[in-house]
């Protein structure tokens, strides 16, 4: 189960890297359309949260340390923060739908929080790899 956890953590990190790529694709798409950020949205709303949840379950089943289990679920929480940032930024838009200085200040936090998701996913993957290669407690106990 430790290897399953490490694989899921790696897939989660890969999904976060893809998320940045999909954001760039959406930002540079011309003309900008409603579906320019479709892959970015799908990855952020579905893929990363599911991988975070599955990896957390695998970590718990593998009896990972509690701190590592907590770190593994953190990307899901940070994705919720991403959605809140977009919602609050949208509330601060003008009635015509145009952004304001206030909404841009809030919406800019989306990228910074995205970096936090990336950092946590990287830490989780590194720790999951170390955990998967460490000897299980039953393997280190002397046989009598």
Detailed description of the structure:
- The protein has 6 helices and no strands.
- The protein has one domain.
- It has helices spanning 2-28, 38-61, 66-91, 101-107, 109-133, 137-140.
- α1 packs antiparallel against α5 and α3 (66-91) packs antiparallel against α5 (109-133).
- 78% of the residues lie in helices and 0% in strands.
- The protein is elongated.
- The chain starts with a helix and ends with a helix.
- The longest helix is centred in the N-terminal third of the chain and has 27 residues, at 2-28.
- With 144 residues, the chain is an all-alpha fold.
Shape: elongated
Number of alpha- plus pi-helical segments: 6
Query: What fraction of residues sit in β-strands?
Result: under 5%
Helical amount: over 70%
Number of domains: 1
Please provide the ordered H/E string of secondary-structure elements. HHHHHH
Number of strands: 0
The radius of gyration is 19 Å
Mean pLDDT: 94
The class by helix and strand makeup works out as mainly alpha
* Biggest sheet overview: none
Q: Unreliable segments (pLDDT under 50, ≥5 consecutive)?
A: none
Q: What distance separates the N and C termini?
A: 26 Å
């Amino acid at each position: 189960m430790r290897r399953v956890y490490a694989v899921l953590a790696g897939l989660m990190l890969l999904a976060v890297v893809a998320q940045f790529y999909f954001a760039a694709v959406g930002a540079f798409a011309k003309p900008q359309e409603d579906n320019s950020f479709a892959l970015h949205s799908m990855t952020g709303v579905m893929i990363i949260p599911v991988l975070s949840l599955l990896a957390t379950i695998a970590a718990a089943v593998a009896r990972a340390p509690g701190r590592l289990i907590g770190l593994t679920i953190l990307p899901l929480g940070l994705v919720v923060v991403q959605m809140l940032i977009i919602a609050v930024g949208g509330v601060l838009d003008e009635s015509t739908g145009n952004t304001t200085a206030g909404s841009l200040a809030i919406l800019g936090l989306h990228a910074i929080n995205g970096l936090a998701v990336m950092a946590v996913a990287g830490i989780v993957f590194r720790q999951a790899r170390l955990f998967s290669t460490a000897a299980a407690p039953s393997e280190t106990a002397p046989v009598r």
